[in-house]
């Protein structure tokens, strides 16, 4: 394939492994290489890129660390593609939060700032009733698993993620998916699998509050909907953060 090296912005050469990783990263993110695609074994890729095996392995190591590929050994193994998702994003974010010793309360506060903005945007949309029906179905899904703490947390995450997505801003939606992943894992980590009549009552109250939110959105009562959801998030925050959990540091062993 010829010399794969090129110069970076400072005049120095870009390392060949980084060049290979960049080409594959672009193909994965753009969708040219679909999720689950098998790229082949190492010898296939060595021949394809015209580089040595150590060079290729370094490129694959970069992509594997980014969560974009998995390298499996054996006859049925090979290099497999993974499209970026909120789990990978949350893992990276959790590392940064861990390094800064950010509290779980701070993470939850960020979500509490974002969601009311989405509520306001949704309430102002002309076609908001379609979104309300989607959200009602997600509340029904939560109610169906209300007795299972783990399943209920996952269903709740789906509701919050869709609420923000319906607000219409894709960047905010991606950020919220990341925050929801971190918060959901934190709640699971500190809450354990224990269930009580009290916690079941809290969940039922939460669902009633969600349904009230949808009533306000449906009639276009944006101000009231925002105020209601701000109060809701404040209560939820006190319940969740009343656990003994403290920092994102405690979450890292849940990202394997």
Automatic annotation (TrEMBL):
Molecular function GO labels: DNA binding; DNA-binding transcription factor activity
InterPro entries: GntR_C, TF_FadR/GntR_C, Tscrpt_reg_HTH_GntR, WH-like_DNA-bd_sf, WH_DNA-bd_sf
Key words, A-Z: DNA-binding, Pyruvate, Transcription, Transcription regulation
PROSITE patterns, sorted: HTH_GNTR
Record domain HTH gntR-type: where: 14-84
Database matches in SMART domains: FCD, HTH_GNTR
Name listed for the protein in its UniProt record: Pyruvate dehydrogenase complex repressor
The species this protein was found in: Nocardia aurantia
């Amino acid at each position: 394939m010829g010399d794969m090296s090129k110069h970076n912005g400072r005049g120095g050469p870009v390392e060949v492994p980084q060049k290979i990783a960049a080409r594959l990263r672009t193909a994965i993110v753009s969708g040219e290489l679909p999720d689950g695609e098998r790229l082949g074994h190492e010898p296939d890729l060595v021949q394809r890129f015209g580089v040595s095996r150590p060079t290729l392995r370094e490129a694959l190591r970069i992509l594997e660390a980014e969560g974009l590929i998995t390298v499996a050994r054996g006859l049925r193994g090979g290099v497999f593609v993974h499209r970026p998702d909120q789990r990978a994003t949350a893992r990276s974010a959790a590392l940064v939060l861990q390094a800064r010793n950010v509290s779980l309360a701070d993470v939850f506060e960020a979500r509490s700032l974002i969601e009311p903005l989405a509520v306001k945007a949704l309430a102002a949309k002309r076609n908001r009733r379609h979104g309300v029906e989607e959200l009602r179905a997600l509340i029904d899904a939560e109610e169906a698993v209300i007795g299972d703490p783990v399943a209920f947390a996952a269903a709740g995450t789906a509701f919050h993620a869709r609420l923000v997505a319906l607000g219409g801003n894709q960047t905010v939606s991606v950020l919220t998916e990341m925050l929801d992943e971190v918060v959901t894992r934190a709640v699971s980590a500190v809450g354990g699998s224990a269930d009580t009549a009290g916690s079941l009552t809290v969940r039922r109250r939460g669902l009633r509050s969600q349904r009230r939110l949808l009533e306000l959105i449906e009639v276009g009562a944006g101000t009231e909907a925002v105020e209601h959801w701000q109060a809701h998030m404040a209560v939820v925050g006190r319940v969740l953060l009343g656990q003994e959990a403290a920092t994102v540091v405690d979450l890292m062993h849940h990202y394997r």
